[in-house]
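Discrete fold record:
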Amino acid sequence: MPRFNLNWIYIVIIGALAIMLYQGNTHPGSFDKEVSYSELKEYISKGYTKDLVVDKSEGVVRITIKPEKIREVFKKRAEDVGKRPTVSARYPSADKVEDYITLTQYKGKVTYEEHNPFWRQFLTGILPIFLFFGIWFLLMRNMGGMGGKGGIFSVGKSKAKEYDKENGPQVTFKDVAGQEGAKQEVQEIVDFLKNPEKYTELGGKIPKGALLVGPPGTGKTLLAKAVAGEAGVPFFSMSGSDFVEMFVGVGASRVRDLFEKAKAKAPSIIFIDEIDAIGRARGNKANFGGNDERESTLNQLLTEMDGFGTNSGVIILAATNRVDVLDTALLRAGRFDRQIHVDLPDLPERIAIFRVHLKPLKLESGLDIELLARQTPGFSGADIANVCNEAALIAARHSHESVNKQDFLDAVDRIVGGLERKTKVMTQDEKRSIALHEAGHAAVSWLLEYANPLIKVTIVPRGQALGAAWYLPEERSIMTREQMLDEICATLAGRAAEELFTGHISSGAMNDLEKVTKRTYGMVAYMGMSERLPNLCYYNTQESFVKPYSDYTAKLIDEEVQQIISLQYERAKQLLSAHAAEHQRLADLLCEKEVIFAKDVEEIFGPRPWKSRAEILLKEQPATTTEADSANDEAADS
């Protein structure tokens, strides 16, 4: 038999419509004129009628006009209206038609018809049902995945992409810069698969799973690709969101299918990216719709991970940046035996990452890669890749023959602070107010021991910010209470300078206040760094709408936060009052030049009595961590 094709459906529909239209006209090629029922009776009374047909199925009276009356009725020649031209009208009821015929004593031929063509029944009754099921079939096939051969029956098949030694990603551990600890752990997993006897002959068990945990952009997925490229075994990659569909049971079915494929080709690796999409902690409250489906998918994943044999050769890798929301049953030993932390790179790792991303660029000779790494504290691998790409674009925009150091510094400023808005129009009062605000940040941070060392201050608008200050923060593993208080004081110095030297406050400090409030609440509620609530932590890892403390404690937390912020605000005002002359000179210089550097601040305030390690490493170049005065400038937190 010929293969089924959608064109057959189109042919059947067109043919049915043609038949219906053909049967709808009793005399093909003849002209039919529709009139009112009163006009029809007038034609009958005048004797124009050759014969009369009452169609009860359609409720129509149709009369055939005599040849000699055609021109009078139709205003056309007999050749133009066909052999049997008719005039038709809808009648109110069959009884009234019969009464009229009896009353007028009509002598012509009267025919009563009552028919219901098969094709009309098909089109009005049966065809819509076929169309409904046809559309439903097409939708099911599309939702089941166009790549599947089973149509609707493939909706429960996994969408995992399978890689092997030939068509796998061309990424190896050499392409992963930094993250030496995480790389060592995943490299050990590859060794498990290549030489399992080395580990099992002493009675050891191959770990079942490893969870890659870390902030976005740190290289979790890249590490998984390197494992796929190095292992030389089947590698199944799938995102957590690919498991759940609108149909109940699809997610669990796809989990079963994925593990069946992996076990059939063992030794193999399964990688689930963004596992928090299905691995969120199960709650006691009632769930509806997608939540029930997500939980059934998670239950099936838990069963599969604990269901196959210990040495079956199937290892699961997963990645997430929200490990705190994962279900505890998923994190227990025997499912994910290891948690591999992929953190933000430190200085040596950033140098290695820069070397990887600088390879395809045409660089000027003598470019100091270590300097670039020092300018990007807190940057992830993805951020560094963005810096290198942006620097190349800036160099091309300025028609440089190679990418130089200033291009990279401009790229860092562009990414952290946003694009310079040189066309932004500001009044002199606004410009002066912004200069006082930024000079307040610069002055207080210069005078405090633990505040981040200042690098550059600008009042040129960037992105959503009207002004910004660049700092070079020292990379600390822990922070003391004194360090946090100094940074809070320096952050509040902009608002304090506005109040002291202009007599009013503005909306420009909104971003400063937001950061200060979040940091102070963290000190009081999470770190136990307050006098009235010492050594207490109310941090709750579970997603819940219930606060882990009483209303009285919430009031104490609010009061402690308000007290700390008020004290640091007064402290900033005292420092600015004591150095009011220097602050005014700095603000005047900022209004004049629009951009000033650390050496300009040092000429006014003198050298700092203490130097941080970051300042010692600094080579008189701007850094990248910004403190921009805008409610929407989230880049400041980097």
Observations:
- The chain has a mean pLDDT of 78.
- Residues 95 and 101 are 10 Å apart (CA to CA).
